[in-house]
């Protein structure tokens, strides 16, 4: 169990969750959530992976601990068994998924970069859940196209987590709506895009934030207008939009 002291491992006592700090109006409130609900209940392998990932130069990409906790609980609530993840990085959300699924659960995990997945893999193996993961290196879109063409994957996924190239989310949605089962859920991550979705036009945004913002805005509009799904946009992590397929 992590203690308050442990959560204060940072010199100034503040959390080290990356990339998500500013969405809650109060950083102290976020720290409170982490210390009271998230860190004390975080499974040991997830803590280990979070700490290993924190040392990696691209750690801003990792899923935050509170979002990892949310995904883990959500998957249990919907009794997910057959899942997909697009965008793995070192595997924090993947591990939170793998730990939530039953022993015979499955995760098709897609990422263009296997090297980063291999940072987390020994921890995932040690946790005894690696057998649930089918990792495929390469761009996700052609894999989705193959599955659709194949025909046997239509409506087969209980849950799909999308956390990869934001400029392709609309393209993913066009395919995933076919692959997720009716009643199943797709989660699109980073839909509040560091709060930039409400930034004024002249706001000093980082280059990549500005570039992807228009794609995120377009996605958010498209999801709200899509009558095949029911949605809920949650301010967890960097914003996650849950879409339940209804037809
Ligand atoms: N879910 C991960 C976690 O919990 O740490 C974070 C994923 S990170 C934000 C985005 C990932 O998407 C990167 O690992 C990147 O290599 C991957 N990616 C980018 N473009 C991709 C594509 N076209 N197909 C599959 N993966 C892609
Ligand atoms: Ca993310």
Question: Would you give an account of this structure?
Answer:
By secondary structure, this protein is α/β, with parallel strands linked by helices. About 40% of the residues lie in helices and about 20% in strands. Helix 3 packs antiparallel against helix 6, helix 4 runs parallel beside helix 5 (about 90-100) and helix 7 runs parallel beside helix 8. Residues about 1-10 have low confidence and may be disordered. The site of calcium ion (CA) has 5 residues, from loops. S-adenosylmethionine binds near residues 63, 88 and 112.
User: What helical percentage do the residues reach?
Assistant: 40-55%
Bound molecules: S-adenosylmethionine, calcium ion
Q: What name does CATH use for the topology? A: Rossmann fold
Low-confidence stretches are 1-9
Number of strands: 7
Q: Write down the domain tally.
A: 1
Protein name: Caffeoyl-CoA O-methyltransferase
Family: Belongs to the class I-like SAM-binding methyltransferase superfamily. Cation-dependent O-methyltransferase family.
Organism: Ilex paraguariensis (yerba mate)
InterPro entries: Cation-dep_OMT, SAM-dependent_MTases_sf, SAM_O-MeTrfase
């Amino acid at each position: 169990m992590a203690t308050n002291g442990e959560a204060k491992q940072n010199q100034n006592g503040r959390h080290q969750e990356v990339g998500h700090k500013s969405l809650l109006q109060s950083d102290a409130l976020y720290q409170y959530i982490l210390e009271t609900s998230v860190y004390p209940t975080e499974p040991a392998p997830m803590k280990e992976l979070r700490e290993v990932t924190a040392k990696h130069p691209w750690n801003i990409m990792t899923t935050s601990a509170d979002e990892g906790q949310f995904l883990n609980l959500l998957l249990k609530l919907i009794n997910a068994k057959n899942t997909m993840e697009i965008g793995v990085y070192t595997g924090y959300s993947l591990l939170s998924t793998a730990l939530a699924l039953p022993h015979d659960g499955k995760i098709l995990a897609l990422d263009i970069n296997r090297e980063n997945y291999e940072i987390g893999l020994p921890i995932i193996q040690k946790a005894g859940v690696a057998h649930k993961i089918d990792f495929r290196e390469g761009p996700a879109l052609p894999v989705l196209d193959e599955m659709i063409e194949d025909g046997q994957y239509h409506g087969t996924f209980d849950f799909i987590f999308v956390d990869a190239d934001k400029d392709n989310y609309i393209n993913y949605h066009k395919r995933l709506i076919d692959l997720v089962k009716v009643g199943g859920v797709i989660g699109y991550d980073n839909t509040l895009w560091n709060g930039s979705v409400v930034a004024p036009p002249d706001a000093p945004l980082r280059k990549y934030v500005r570039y992807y913002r228009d794609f995120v805005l377009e996605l958010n509009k498209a999801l709200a207008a899509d009558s095949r799904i029911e949605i809920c946009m949650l301010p967890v992590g960097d914003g996650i939009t849950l879409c339940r397929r209804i037809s």
